[in-house]
Specification:
With 507 residues, the chain is α/β, with parallel strands linked by helices. The chain contains 17 helices and 16 strands. The strands form 3 sheets. Strands 8-12-11-13-14-10-15-16 form an 8-stranded mixed beta sheet, sandwiched between helices. It has a 6-stranded antiparallel barrel with strand order 1-2-5-4-3-6. α5 packs across α6 and α7 packs parallel to α8. It starts with a helix and ends in a 5-residue tail after the last helix.
Length: 507
């Protein structure tokens, strides 16, 4: 027994000595190092990394990172994600062994960050426990649920005539300075108190424009439920390229928690141009308008991530509002037609309407929602069913009326009614209208109660009608704001109160 005990003691002593030796000896860590062979605007060519994978992260001196984009036999083309002015040929490049990811979680709410998750608002580091890859596969078809709930924008012309559902992808397009960003920001503001989180992604925008949007969101209390992802116009094209993918990963975290999320891409024109610049610098073969052949794929794989998940997977949704800029009202250009074919409808903003002061400048004839009508509240279907047709008839007759021809009384009545529809659909910025307020106004409009109101008094009459929406019985407001149908008695109650209020505004 004593011999056995002695052997055990000696064995334990040798084991302890081995542990001490292993702890004190330097550990060998394998690193794969390459060399920068050439540099250009936002691009580096690197040799000596034979094991690197496509879209893998590589690290340069000075905490500068890049993504392996071209993987050739002798060298790789790397997209740089930061200030590359201090880089030189011959600098070392190290493999990181993972693809690009971004921090996600509740800590990002109320923050302004760049696509790498670095703060831009001066509030310190974002403390997040989880990171998601910026490129993630879209949910498979069997994981998706039909779009069945509306996403209220608070804008009358959109909610009534071009409705958006939760999980839908609705394109906003128009020439520059026609109010595209204003519609997206108003939609974000209207989500306050509706349990919808928002992500605003600014791609290659002017710093002053982004600062104004952030100030508007903060002033109206929207930053509490919003994440802002920013790349400015002077940032490298690599950051502009990854920005929408990083923002979508941030939004997907909340969607997978069962939340409803709205994401705005402002705008994908700059994204396409950044990708074209990178592709040309990397010597990829150009196609139409010098865009590479996979320009359709970079947007389709982005927007396919917007969906509504089945109840078994939490029932969360991701609604996308991509923005695109047209030139000279050409909606049949390359990038706009690509995105129109990917999305579930579009809201077209007309510079002609904008010049006339009809804001928001939504061209109802060229705008469509291929999904949202199925998710629209029943009350909207009843009051807005004939509105689009009446407005289209008015626009056609108005064009003839400009020639000064004599018009019969019925035609004059249609034109007068159409002008009041147009006046009712006008709406100032940062003034979202509740569902009940919209239904009261639209019901009075379709029943032609406004036809006796002079055009110069339409604004005051509409505000008076929206005020009575606050005084309706709570049960009726609940029915209006839900998917329940409102009865004929409800209609009569609303019309009686509307007639009484509009009596004071008639000529």
């Amino acid at each position: 027994m004593e011999t056995q005990s002695l052997q055990n003691t000696v064995a334990q002593a040798f084991s302890d000595m081995a542990h001490i030796r292993d702890a004190t000896m330097p550990q060998l860590v394998s690193r794969e190092i390459g060399i920068v062979t050439s540099l250009s605007n936002g691009i580096a060519r690197v040799s000596g990394l034979p094991g690197v994978c496509y879209e893998e992260v590589v690290k340069f001196p000075g905490e500068l990172y890049g993504i392996a984009f071209n993987v050739d036999e002798d060298e790789i083309g790397v997209v740089l994600l930061g200030d590359y002015l201090q880089l030189h040929s011959g600098d070392e490049v190290e493999r990181r062994g993972h693809i690009m990811d971004v921090p996600v979680g509740e800590a990002l709410l109320g923050r302004v960050v760049n696509p790498l998750g670095k703060p831009l608002d001066g509030k310190g580091v974002v403390l997040s426990r989880q990171r998601y890859p910026i490129e993630r596969p879209a949910p498979p078809i069997m994981d998706r649920a039909p779009v069945s709930q509306p996403l209220q924008s608070g804008i009358k012309v959109i909610d009534a005539l071009v409705p958006i559902g939760r999980g839908q992808r609705e394109l906003i397009l128009g020439d520059r300075q026609t109010g595209k960003t204003a519609i997206a920001v108003d939609t974000i503001l209207n989500q306050r108190g509706k349990d919808v989180l928002c992500v605003y992604c600014a791609i290659g925008q002017r710093a002053s424009g982004v600062a104004k949007v952030v100030a508007d969101l903060r002033e109206n209390g929207a930053m509490d439920y919003t994440v802002v992802v920013v790349t400015e116009g002077n940032d490298p094209p690599g950051l502009s390229y990854i920005a929408p993918y990083a923002a979508t990963s941030i939004a997907e975290y909340f969607m997978e928690q069962g939340r409803d999320v709205l994401i705005v891409y402002d705008d994908l024109t700059h994204h396409a141009r950044a990708y074209r610049e990178l592709s040309l610098l990397l010597r990829r073969p150009p196609g139409r308008e010098a865009y590479p052949g996979d320009i359709f794929y970079i947007h389709s794989r982005l927007l396919e991530r917007a969906t509504r998940l089945r109840a078994e997977l939490g029932g969360g949704s991701l609604t996308a509002l991509p923005i695109i800029e047209t030139e000279a009202q050409n909606i049949s250009a390359y990038i706009p037609t690509n995105l129109i074919s990917i999305t579930d409808g579009q809201i077209y903003l007309s510079p002609d309407l904008f010049a006339l002061g009809i804001l928001p400048a939504v061209d109802v004839g060229k705008s469509v929602s291929r999904v949202g009508g199925k998710a629209q509240h029943e009350a909207y279907r009843l009051v807005a069913g004939d509105l689009k047709l009446a407005y289209a008839q008015f626009e056609e007759l108005e064009a003839f009326a400009r020639f000064g021809t004599r018009l019969d009384e019925n035609t004059l009545r249609i034109i007068g009614h159409g002008r009041r529809i147009r006046a009712c659909l006008k709406q100032p910025e940062f003034e979202p209208v509740s569902v009940a307020g919209q239904i009261v106004v639209l019901l009075a409009l379709t029943r032609r109660l406004f036809d006796a109101i002079p055009l110069e008094k339409m604004r005051q009459a509409e505000l008076a009608l929206r005020a009575i929406a606050e005084q309706l019985p709570a049960e009726l407001v609940q029915r209006i704001s839900s998917s329940e149908a409102i009865s004929e008695a409800d209609h009569e109650l609303i019309l009686q109160q509307a007639s009484r209020v509009l009596q004071d505004h008639r000529a």
